[in-house]
Structures
1.
Amino acid sequence: MNSLIDTFKLSNGVEIPCIGFGTWQTPEGQVAIDTVKYAIKTGYRHIDTAAIYGNEKSVGQAVAESEVERKELFITTKLWNTERGYETTLRAFEQSMKNLKLEYLDLYLIHWPAIGEEGAKINSETWKAFEKLYKEGRIRSIGVSNFLEHHLRSLLDTAEIVPMVNQIEYHPGYRQQDTVTFCESHNILIEAWSPLGTGRLLKNPELAEIAAKYNKSVAQLCIKWCLQNGTLPLPKSITQQRILENTQLFDFTITDADMKTCNDLPYIGGSGLHPDEIDF
Ligand code: A2P
């Protein structure tokens, strides 16, 4: 990857720009509008939002007001947990599209797997609705988020279409290697949410030492590390200088030895959320 317009190719041939602009915890309103517009101006072509973030309307407004053509942008949103199921998913999708004011979506994700006794059945019904929307051409690609290997295996028992993406928490110290290996073997692209461990990695001395060798920040090192491991990072920031900084990483390569050191780090911090333990 040499620039923000370089892409990963999904299993259905759709091209997805290699760094997505994350908007989790970006407040709806002027902050979201201004930061998304600034990100697009800076060169990001891929914006990641979700119904639960509460900022779909602002993301849509920023996209509409940006000077970049819609077809040059890649927009993702996600189905929230309370809307799982066939009919409810179809309704939630329409609501997201209304919020975003888009005619088509590039990627729709099931935000978290349903768990418990009924979990597999609910995920399967939700996925049927995703498949319908995909076949109708409303969405260019479909996927899941926070699915571990066992959630994916049971989804694949009834799925007609294999998810094209699995968006998981992924950063140094938290590689979720079982899930990643399973996805690689099924041609499912891993997107990395919180590539900076929600900011908790930034003061880590080992990462700081490695980053300094390249004259880069820890944030840049972590984002580049995702790319070099074949995953698509989704860094979030509402600070202009950081939004820009998080793109300035195409002029260095992390050595194999430093990649190994980062790969082998123990858990440093992160969101603390586990798909089988969430209560929301
Ligand atoms: P802010 O949005 O206030 O700029 P993650 O993407 O892992 O969830 O991390 C997001 C957090 O990391 C946010 O708190 C964000 O702060 C912060 N952040 C993003 N980019 C940088 C950067 N380049 N340097 C320092 N902090 C950053």
2.
Amino acid sequence: MLKKVTVNTLQKMKDNGEKFSMLTAYDYPTAKYLDEAGIDVLLVGDSLAMVILGYDNTGKIGIEEMSVFTKAVVRGANRAFIVADMPFGSYHSGIDNAMANICHLAKCGANAVKIEGGNDYIYSIVERSVGLGVPVMGHLGFTPQFLNTIGGYNIQGKTVEATLEILKQAKHLEEAGAFAVVLEMVPEESAAYITQNLKIPTVSCGAGRFCDAQVIVSDDMLGKFSEFKPKFVRKYADLKSVILNSAKQYDFDVKNGNFPSEDEIYKLNDSERMQLLSYQN
Ligand code: KIV
């Protein structure tokens, strides 16, 4: 069995100038295949609210739903490090409540949690969680859970001042004990500057080529979620077409008597068949 990825593996990779890969996973078979493919980190992202559950934004998923998907991913992966997103509302009403939900996801098997935002309240949650044994990945730049305060799907860190502000937040997260930080929808030069000035790894989600790692939503890159495609996603497959074409072919085969075939059925033995025939006569 391959050696399990840990926070130390990821830090060593940054220190050695090696990049690591991260993809979202929400179910057992996908986690199994991504793990087998060598993906280093699997994120049970709250993006599952949209791409799996059909909600219109990520804020609508709750801790219980997140638990079910986290457990499925944990059952599928052996080597990859598993990070579960803290859903909107699950860390908002006090550090004790946040810790209860962090422990809940850790008990589901997550190796770490991810929390969006950079302010004193978030830093104190990170510090408490890490101090109690649950690693935390930060998430800065465009933070979908802040969609209504940001006011749209806007690129963050577009000026030097804004870049320095994100770096300041990232440094606070690092000091609080975060083991990595996602930078979402940030210009490449800004993300590179932030990366160079942090000890912990940065993970680009639409933040260019110079972060220490990359993450995208697996349903986007596999072409399963088709409602929109962010500029920074590369589509490696077209699962929508595979599913559509397979379902159309199945529908045709059922309606034309082509499915099931002789090879896809169970048969009575000869004596039972003869007996059954005699009943019918
Ligand atoms: O929820 C998610 O999938 C994410 C990543 C895209 C970073 O937070």
